[in-house]
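Quick illustration, no need to memorize.
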Amino acid sequence: MNDEDLRGLEPSPTVPLSVVSIPNCGPALPLAAARNLGVAHTGGHPDDLLIFLDVDCLPTPDLIEAYQSAAQAHPRDLLCGPVSYLPDVELDPITPGYAERLTRLCEPHPARPNPAPGEILLAGDHDLFWSLSFAVRREMWEYIGGFDEDFVGYGGEDTDFAWQAREVGIALAWVGSASAFHQYHPVSSPPVEHLDDILTNGRLFAHKWGQWPMQGWLERFEALSLVQRYASGYQAAPITVASVPGSHVYIRHLSNLDNAAPAIIRLPDPPPTRADTPVGAPWWPPAMLDPEWVRDCEADVFHIHFGFDAHSPAQLHAVIDALEVRGIPLVYTVHDLQNPHHEDDVLHSSQLDVLIPRATEVITLTPKAAEEIRRRWNIDAHVIAHPHVAEFETITELGGSSLRRQEEFRLGIHLKSLRANMVGIPLLQAAAGAVTKIPGGILQVNLHHDVFDEAGSRHDSELVHFLLNSDIDLRVHDYFSDRELFEYLAGLDASILPYRFGTHSGWMEACHDFGTRVIAPDVGCYISQGADASYSWRFENGVWAPDARSLDAAVLSVSSEQEDPVAEIVSRRCRQRNEIAAAHAAIYRSALAKSRF
């Protein structure tokens, strides 16, 4: 389940090993279905003994033999072995005598039976069954009916399995010699990151058996104001989030698509403090980034994304100080590790030095960015993908409108207003050469009037001269409206990101909404974000230029790729958005739990 590294695992000469995969798992792992699939894959005789061991558990050398012996003595019982939790210590390699060494490191679970080696405790409490380590004969497994696959994700499926066993008269027995060790990994108690799964599975369990499971966790969730109890059961308590900025398209697409009442309520942006807001950013500068606003706000969680460019580190400290006085946790999503608008990154780095260490929870968009955050700040960031940019109705309409011509390959470079991280002429020269090698190849270059016009505030005469004397399809205009932008992207076969530095790209996500391939530089985290091909930069004679060979290969690569069907894109983006929403809800609850402990 979600473990690509295991797909090619080969059996050793002494261990017959079979790897069975469940593809396309979401964040809520199908634990019940996976266990059933494992059993079904083995086939075999009714007298076979099925032994289940969770991936993070180490068996003692006696575990298999102990389960086999217990199954011979008690062939109709559901057998459980005790599991002890290891502390956070470096473990020696497994050598003879390792079980004795590990036993000295850990304590048995205080809430579950711990029979001595050689001892079997009969008639155990089915509520104490756990699926970390257990065994059952295949005949009894089939009598129980396996795990109920309606349970998806964390919690409830093992209690339901044990209750099904009790319902058909199968007793529970604890086998003292079948012990195992649970390897250390960070956990939260209560497991707030799994709250949605616990509520969903708890509701299913209650409908099936007439009462809610996992009462201890639910009571702790309730004490933290993360759930509310009603006569019909438990519901997630709504969380009010101040998102900075709330009206940005990225934030708007963090919500769940289901029609049920949202558990996350996002506050609208207050009016900005100035009237001349930039095109495309009517929220700027964000009024929420003010200690005075924080002191009176009604937010449970404060989530910063963008808009702090003009804030000094001292001003950011003041905002976070005000949050701490109110007991409001800060969540920060690291979109940019380097500001794409500035060559000098000193200010942005100093801002990150405030936001990342002081945030209760840190999010970023790609594994590579998370690695950099860990390296620079020794903080583990949650990795959550960038959501779709265009609305689904627009994707369906424009993606199916055949704006692309079958007889041509249209490669686009949009230089916009030529911000600091963009390269003009050297990239255009290389791209023009690359596209001539593709049948029907056309290079379309878009540029804003403020760069093209002589009276423009960012006029570049050298670039304009090159554009006017090149064999390209030149388009000069003001900022696109959203509709114009999406029509432009839907008309391209591929788009080159002309960035010399940067981190992530919303432009790339908008391209992928319409099946437009993206060629990105091998800087920042663009490849980790999902670029379809990449090129590299070289610095010669004081000038940055793309490596022509790598750009040629990238253009050739994307020109031969098949376009994804529109319905497939929409389905994938819908599924991804719900996963993104669930991940954010879990992080908000984790931040709240940390602030309330």
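Residues 74 and 461 are 88 Å apart (CA to CA).
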